[in-house]
Specification:
With 213 residues, the protein is an all-alpha fold. The protein contains ten helices and no strands. It folds into two domains: 98 residues, Serine Threonine Protein Phosphatase 5, Tetratricopeptide repeat (Alpha Horseshoe); 110 residues, no CATH class.
Length: 213
């Protein structure tokens, strides 16, 4: 398990305007030097070191154009390693600093994808499920001509299916506990859904259900 929390704290410290030279023995290098180091570390799968090189790039060359490219590269690399918290951190920083409409579109899509792939158990992530649905709907509204819409629609369909299963599970739980009034609320939600019971097979693994497109 990589120490994602520690890396996030250090990155927040650097991006907040403070710097530390203790992480690497090298310093005072040109921006291209750190950028190449990041690329090389990502290529060999050493994301811990890539994050450290990014910190050096950020702290020594805060206005470098390499920073925004490095953020996207690192976000995608962390997604590939299923480190979605780190991926979303880089994407949030990218949007905050470089968020033109065109650039925001790609970053917003990657955030939706990172959140979606980060689901492990819908029953324990109910709030995140609704937030993900809202984010996907907002993306469709903000970028109606986006080339990413087919993928967002696929994600949204999976999320709606997960929501349906979750509502059914909650309804059945309330019925087992003798709370018909509470169960009725979720029964109505199921009734009003465009999905039907026979459309969905309850998955043995939430992760496989969500990620197998």
């Amino acid at each position: 398990m990589r120490r994602v929390g520690s890396v996030l704290i250090l990155l927040l410290f650097i991006l907040g305007g403070c710097s530390s030279k203790d992480e690497l023995s090298e310093f005072n290098k040109p921006a291209i030097y750190w950028y190449k180091k990041i690329i090389k570390s990502v290529a060999i799968g050493n994301l811990d070191r890539a994050d450290e090189y990014f910190i050096s790039l950020e702290s020594e060359h805060i206005s470098s154009p390499f920073i925004q490219e490095a953020m996207l590269i690192l976000a995608q690399a962390h997604m590939d390693e299923e480190e979605y918290l780190m991926a979303k951190f880089y994407l949030d920083e990218y949007i905050k600093r470089f968020g033109t409409v065109k650039k925001r579109e790609f970053a917003d899509f990657l955030k939706i994808k990172a959140t979606f792939l980060g689901f492990k158990n819908i029953n324990r992530d109910q709030k995140l499920l609704q937030e993900s649905i809202d984010s996907a709907l907002r993306f469709k509204k903000e970028y109606p001509e986006s080339k990413f819409l087919p993928m967002v629609d696929t994600i949204l369909t999976k999320l709606y299916m997960s929501e349906y299963i979750l509502n059914r599970n909650i309804m059945e739980l309330y019925l087992r506990r003798g709370k018909p009034k509470a169960a009725k609320i979720y029964k109505e939600r199921l009734k009003n859904s465009w999905l039907k019971k026979g459309d969905i097979i309850i998955p043995s693994s939430w992760y496989d259900f969500l990620t197998n497109w």
